Amino acid sequence: MKLQSFKHYSDQLETVAHDAWITARVKSALALGEPTLGLQIHVKTFAGTVALSGRVNTHKQCEQAVALARTVPGVVEIDARELLTHVFTPGSVPTPPNAEENMESRAQSSEKPDDK
Predict the structure, then answer these.
(1) For 54-92, how does the pLDDT look when each residue is reduced to its tens digit (9 = 90+)?
(2) Residue 80 near residue 62, CB atoms below 8 Å
(3) Chain centroid to CA 34
(4) What is the pTM of this model?
(5) Could you tell me where the beta strands, DSSP code E, fall in the chain?
(6) What confidence tier does 96 reach under pLDDT thresholds 50, 70, 90?
(7) Where are the domains positioned within the chain?
(8) Of 36, 35, 25, the residue nearest 70 (C-alpha)
(9) CA nearest to 55, candidates 72, 70, 39
(10) Would you tell me how many other CB atoms lie within 10 Å of the CB of residue 42?
């Protein structure tokens, strides 16, 4: 029974070590490909699947990050759903991260006053 437990533990340890190695290689590939990508993108690996997250300036940088991650040996799949660009959707109102006014006061201030 202990031998099976040790084998299971060693398999998990091997997977964790391999994932850490892949994460380091992907971060290196991003930093060498374009230095700003290495700083803007967070990388996590689980069982060979690399998850990229963070914010980049353009869609081209997003595509470049995915392409660079694909070049790393051992990468099985890439999940870039959390990799966002600074592009805003039409009709949305971008707010600064520490905005003092809330959305209610903004909605009230945008209404037209009644002419009496």
Answers:
(1) 998 888 999 999 999 999 999 999 999 999 887 655 555
(2) yes
(3) 16
(4) 0.65
(5) 41-46, 49-56, 77-85
(6) low
(7) 2-89
(8) 25
(9) 39
(10) 14
